[in-house]
Each structure stands twice: as C-alpha cells, then as structure tokens.
C-alpha cells in the first residue's frame, strides 16, 4: 500500500466510510503525479477544513506535495496578484466535500479574475453531495469528484473529520499560528493551569461521545481536553503597554487556547494557540498600525520583508493579528518554559510553520522571521503608562442581515432569556477553573444550527430548483448566500448578553467567546475576516460551519415537545458536559467529568422559558409610582416604540431593589403550552446590577 493510503487510513481513522477515507489518499497521490508532469503548479486548498486535513495527513506520514505551491484560498489576499505572470500557472482547487457548489463556483470565478483569465484552473473534490449539489454550477469547472454520497452521509463525514482534527490536536483555525506540541508532566501541567493572572475555562466538546455514539451512559474520559485561558485586567494592561501603541489600540480581545492530550502517565502534550482579535478597523488604520510596528520593532521597514502594502486589507488585518498573537505568546512563554520542556527562547522552530505557509505561501519564511523579531522586541520592550493603551471607538461594519429575520430575532431572545437565568459561566478564582455548561454552550451553537436549518437548507433547495446557470446568475444578483452571512462578536453579545458590554472585567467581556470556541472546534461556527466595502471596514465575523447540523434543535422549542427531540450535540453532551456551568478545583490537572440527564436539562430550560415567547420589549424607566412604573419601550429592533405603565406586581422581589429612574429592563411575555394565560417577566438589565456578582 502507498504512503498516501497508509496516511489516510492512519490519520483519518475516524472516517468510517472506507472508500471516502482512502479517496483522500488517492486524491493527493494523483495531485503529486500531476505536479510531477507539470500539470499542476498551484494547489489551492479550499477553506480551513481541507487545509487542516492536509496537515493531519502529512503528520500521519503522507509526503508533502512537491513541485507545486500548496496554499489556502485566502493566500490570494496576501499576494500582489497584478504583478505576477499567471500565463504558465496551472491551478487545482481542492475541496473535501461539494455540497451545493456555490463556494467552488465563486472561488473559481474570483481566481479567473485574479489570474486575468490566463493559465488554467481545474477543480477536484473527495465527495459530492448528490442531494444538494447543482450540476449547472459544476459543469464548466472541470471538476474531478472521487465519490458521491447522500446528504446524511456527507454530514457524517463532516462530523468525523472535525473529530479527527480535534483528537489529533490540529486547531481548527487557518489564520492564527500555533505551537508544536509541548510536554508537561502531570504536576507541572496543574501548576501551569494555576498561572496567576489567567482564568481557565474548560471548553472540551463531547467529541468522544460523538465518535462512539455513547449518549446518556457512563461519562467518557476525553482523549484531548480543550481550554480557553482568559487574562485578567493586569495581564491585559501589561501586554498592551508593551506592544506598539497603534496596534494595542486595535485589540478587541486576546486569550490562549490550549489543546491538551492526556498521556498514560498523566502528563500532557499541549498545543498552545494565542488568539488576539483585532477590532473592526478602517484599512487606513491597519496600514498605519503596520507602519508603526515596523518602526518600533528592530529591523525598521524590513520587519516583514514582503510587499505587504500591495496586499488586500484583509491580509493587513491578519498581519496585525499575527503581531499581537506573537506578543500574547511571548507574555506567557516564560511561564511555559518554567513548567514544560519548551526551549527557553521562543523561535520559529516552536511554531507549526506549515500552517503559516498555507496562508502566506512564498512569503511565509519572511513572515516567520518577522515573528522572531516581534518576540525579541516584546521581551525588551518598556511598559508605557496605562492611559496610553486606551482604545478608541472602532467603526461598525454593516449590520448582519440575519438580525432582521423575525425568526432569528425570536431565537436570539430565547437565548437571551436562558443566559439571563443564571447560565453565564462564573469567573473562577485562582486554583479553580470553570467547566462551561451545556445550556450556555447550546444557546451559542444553536444560533448557527438554527440558521442552517431554517435558512441555509431552504436556500439550498431554492438553488437546486433553478433551471440553469443564467437563472442562477439572476438569482445571485438579488440574494446573498446564507453561508456567507453571519454575526460579529459584538452583535452576538448585544443579542444574547448585552449587560457584559459595560463590565470592567475582561472575563465578562470575553465570556460569550467561550461558546464560540467550542462551536469553532466542532465545526459549527466558522470565523471569517471580511472587507465591508460599503463602509470600508475590515472585520471578523462568524458564520455557519459544515457541522452546524449538529445543533439544529433550539432548546426552548425542544423541551416543549413530548418527548423532547434533542439534536446530535445535545445527546452527546448529556452526562459529559454539566447542564449548568460549574466552578471546579484544579486537582493535579485532571478535570472531573460531571454531566446531567435529559430530565434535568428540560427542567432547567423550562424554568428559564416557561413557554414560547409571545411578546418582547426593551425599555427605560422614566418614573416610579406607588403601584407601577412608567417607561419608554420598544421592540428589540426598534420597529415598534411607545410608552407603558408596568405594574410593580410584575417585578420579582429580587428585582424590586434594582428599580430606579433610567434603569434599563427587558419585558417578556410567555405563552405556556398548557393554558392560555400569559406569564410575564420583568428583568432589570443594568450592567452594574447584572454583573455585580
């Protein structure tokens, strides 16, 4: 058997379909043969999952492709495409699955424009969804498809691929650099988790239960644990005060992701991923920040050593991300060295360079050189006064069109009610971690599962029903693919946990991102960097991923069914993930596995949602009388506005002390399934009151 098939069998062993699994090996073996013959000069791996799968196969013994460049589709953001001769290039676009075909069609079209319609472009894929794929989109693309499967089988492949990548400690990211595995003894790992200044959240998803199909049985020991590590205010101040001012002012948030494999002796093999998120920014601000970085870090204008000014603004955004993430990793590296086998000096050798190469292509070596300069510069940087790191107001991109969908608004409001009922994960003290609960996680996962079920799948059927390419082009001029629509982090926070905006605690400002982290690991959520050319803003947002079907049953509606029909991820999470978030002691690095039952889940959800949401308003108190308070109220989107007198009897005893002029509140009426009597809830939402704990 060839090395390609061996690597596929070993590296993708979770894929149960033998033909599909081996098709990955056959595909790359054929690509190498074509590269040897000069028929392929550039291999474009479509999106992050195909790129991560390629890295997994190489780690499993597959030879790297040679004789051609291997890049992600996003590479074309980071290259001066107009100053390049494309006439001799033979591009092969490679995907794992073709579902509808719009993504492949659009990428093929955009590359034709980039290449000025010179050279050749062909496509290849492991599998095509026979239920959803549209032939007229693929007919002119020269697509080599190895297998066809029904939608259910394609979904199974998607689930198995994300399990494979997680268990192999391949972070499901394409735009952040991460370390090679670092070894910690059991005692040292526990010591590292107690590092002062960082709060630990266990966000391990139930991959093992998804893999084995075990639901509601004995809890399983995870093969790989996943943690999100949030800095406290002192760490944030220190990091920002040691970075270039213009870059520090662009930081939206930063943290660490840790992927820890448990070894038989209790030690851990850990991949560290530093995440620094850049706030929405104007291209001019990004350019100015990069010029300032090159000025401040040793090396002057030669820091990056590439013609980045010719790149697209989204690639500038990635460079600022890379700079800031290198600073975050530098901040924690000394502590890593103290507790592990990591080398004393952080260099490019500690980073998984292939992942960088897939994004930056031929520029990657110089980018990694710049990484080392950033690390050295951070080590010797002086701290500025803290006031110098105050961040200005950042521009807003165009609002998500999904927020205008009435049913999506209803889902988000139900999620808001669930989170407001005590399901936001508590901030842990030193020596403890927060085990993030199922209700909190599913509220966030379910946003994307719901959009997939109620908007993406119907749109797929609409496209499938079109007669030809001309009709599709007309349809496309009037519609945006749901697959490309999403939410910014600020939009999700505003919809689900608005009270966290004004908190001075970094934990509360970052808490919603814990659900995004697990959704990312599961492939339910995909982070994307985009240039909104209407407002000229570069920003990061989150859209549905290939595995969004895992979370397609909203908890609110599900528990009203008899019996409840929980989705795949909920069934897998029960008895492994706690229903409510818990603060637990860090004990020798081992994380206790505590879950719940379907009955407990239903009780908790019904307590927060005593029926379907009938009406919903937000308001501000304008006066308080003996029996009622008066308020200005409006619907969440502002489409309805007015005044109301609200009886004080509707306000709970716990909420009564929070009533005051100017206080903001939410007013929700529920319609229980058992009778027609509405149940009303008034909740004061002032951040200082809501987050005082």
Summarize the structure.
This protein has 693 residues and is α+β, with helices and mostly antiparallel strands.
Note down, in words, how this protein is organized.
There is one protein chain. The protein has about 700 residues and is an alpha+beta fold. About 40% of the residues lie in helices and about 20% in strands. The protein has 23 helices and 20 strands. A hairpin with a 3-residue loop joins strand 16 (about 610-625) and strand 17 (about 630-635). The longest helix is centred in the middle third of the chain and has 28 residues, at about 440-465.
Largest sheet: 7 strands, mixed
Shape: globular
- C-alpha-based Rg, rounded: 25 Å
The low-pLDDT segments are 588-592, 687-693
> What is the structural class?
alpha+beta
Strand and helix map with partners:
Layout: H1 3-11, H2 18-36, E1 42-45, H3 47-59, E2 69-72, E3 90-98, H4 102-114, E4 120-129, H5 135-138, E5 143-149, H6 151-167, E6 182-184, H7 186-193, E7 198-202, H8 207-212, E8 224-231, H9 233-242, H10 245-248, E9 251-262, E10 268-278, H11 283-296, H12 313-339, H13 353-360, H14 364-379, H15 406-420, E11 432-435, H16 438-465, H17 469-476, E12 486-487, H18 489-496, H19 506-521, E13 525-532, E14 537-544, H20 555-558, H21 568-573, E15 582-585, H22 598-608, E16 612-624, E17 628-634, E18 641-647, E19 664-671, E20 679-684, H23 687-690
Parallel strand pairs: 1-2, 1-3, 3-4, 4-5, 7-11
Antiparallel strand pairs: 6-10, 7-8, 8-9, 9-10, 11-15, 12-14, 13-14, 16-17, 16-19, 17-18, 19-20
